Structure formats: C-alpha cells, structure tokens
Amino acid sequence: MPTGESLSLQRVEKTLATPIRYRPVRTSHCILSLKELDTDEAYAVPDFELAEELIARGADSARIAISPHDTESLYLEYSQAAEGKQLIPASPFDFNQSIVIVLPTYNERANLEALIPAISRYLVADILIVDDNSPDGTGELADQLSCKYGHVHALHRLKKEGLGPAYLAGFKWALQRNYSLIIEMDCDFSHAPWDLPRLVHRSRTADLVIGSRYVPGGGTENWNASRRFVSRCGNTYASLFLGSTIHDWTGGFRCYRRELLARMNLAAVRAKGYIFQVELAWRALQLGAEVDELPIRFCDRIEGQSKLGWRSVAEALIEVPKMCFLRLGDR
Does the model's pTM come out above 0.85? Predict the structure, then answer.
C-alpha cells in the first residue's frame, strides 16, 4: 500500500537491484504467527488464496510475491520499488479477460502521469480517464496519455458534477464496449495498484468485490482523527439503515462484473457524492448479487486535496434513509 511517500513517475519507472529474501508459505499450516519483515524480506506464496490468508492476518499485500507455479525462478523475477517497499512482478498479471479501470479525475494532474504506468505494472487492463473539465490541465494530460498508450482512453465531461455522475459516465462507456470486468479506483494512490490483481481474482466468485478498510487485514494510513471519525460514522450510519452485510459501504476501490452493472438501472441512480458508493452497493444487494470484501490498506492522498466535503455528508444523511424505506423499483 502507499507508505506516505509521494509516488513519482521516476520512482515507478526505476527499481533497485536489492536482493529480496523470501519466506515461503506453501500451505495454510505455515501461517501461525506473523513476524515483522526485514526491509529485504518478502513472503512467497503459490496462489492468491494463501496471499489472502496472510493479508487477513496483517501481512502487507505490497510484500507478497505470488507465483501460480510455485517456482523460485518466478519469485526471483520480482523487483522492488525501493528497499522495503512494494514488490513489482516481471510482467503484469493477465487474467485473459477484458477489463477496464475507470479513473474519475478533477485536478489530478500531479498524480495521473505516475499512476498510469504504475497500474500497468500489475494488471493487463484498459484504463478510462473520466475528466470533469479540470482547470489544472488534467484533461489535456489524459489526451496525451491516450496517444502514448494504446490501452488508455479519455472521456471528457463539460463540468464538475460529482463523483457519481463521473462514474456513471464511465460505466456507460464501458458497458457499450462489452468489458467483462469494470473496476473503479481513485486517482491519487489511495488505492494501491498492486492490489488490482487481488480484486480481479476474487471476482471469480463474486459479482461485486469491495476493497475494504473494515475487515480483518484492512485499515487506513496517514489519516487524522477527524477523517477516521467521519469514515467510521458514515459506515455505521449506513449499516444502521441498510444492514451490516457490508462492512465498508463507502469504499471506492471496487470490481464489478459486467452482468451486475447491466442489470442495475443506472439511469435512476441519484447520488452524486461519495454516497454513490453506498447506493450502488445497496442496489447490488437488492438484486441478489454476491458481494465480497477484500482487505486493503487505504492511504490518504499525498498530492492534491480531498474532494470529501460537508455537502457529501449532508447528502448521505438524507439519501441513506431513503434507500432503506424505498424499494428498488421505486428508485
């Protein structure tokens, strides 16, 4: 996960040749008690399932090498961004599926150029940048990146209308192009690119996978007390009205199966701010979808300013009770 240091393009493109010492974990019985890794150490596992067991017990997903064939040579192909930092596979994970990552942007120029190659190191997927006419030139940068990289696309909107409408525009674009998986992700490195393969792998058994801060192994980093308070209160408030089936209602690191989004009446979605995440999770449950949560460590943004404001809080206070009392067909 992000560690509090700004991830620049230079850091993404250059890795250190520092050798990595691996602690192999080949079965669940090997997971007894986790000890803090030295900066030159990492775990090595043969599959995603063992990786998830480690993470649920507190291991950092950034320091786990996954080799489906359990061969030492594949582990040795991993590098690291810096000593003790995230591992980088020799090639991105390819799940042989059509995947698109939707990135909504507003004044994210400082993060966008670094994030695109970072994502591409971990997952074979298209990337759609949805820009709301950012005054800092993010939209122009998105066009430049789409020209530079064949898997990057740009969608321009006339004005800033909120997170919900931006994602809905991206979802509509993706559904028209028949992607099998549609991922949503913040553009500020709050969501770790190296967790993308985990989301995709878990989607084999779930219609919606939520990167969760509030399940065992999940958490937050670099948050002040007020940010933690607002987040906890928001999720508690949603659970009081909508149930505790989901622990992280407001989490914005998600993977949807195409079939689920196609079944949703997206034209009827009303939420514009961060409550949009709650509404789509609620709609998924109303449709009987299989929803799963994957532990992640969420790190507060380094560059730029948070878009969370009191308007979003007020929207949540009003809209969540409406979801509880209105049937899906009424919305």
Answer: yes
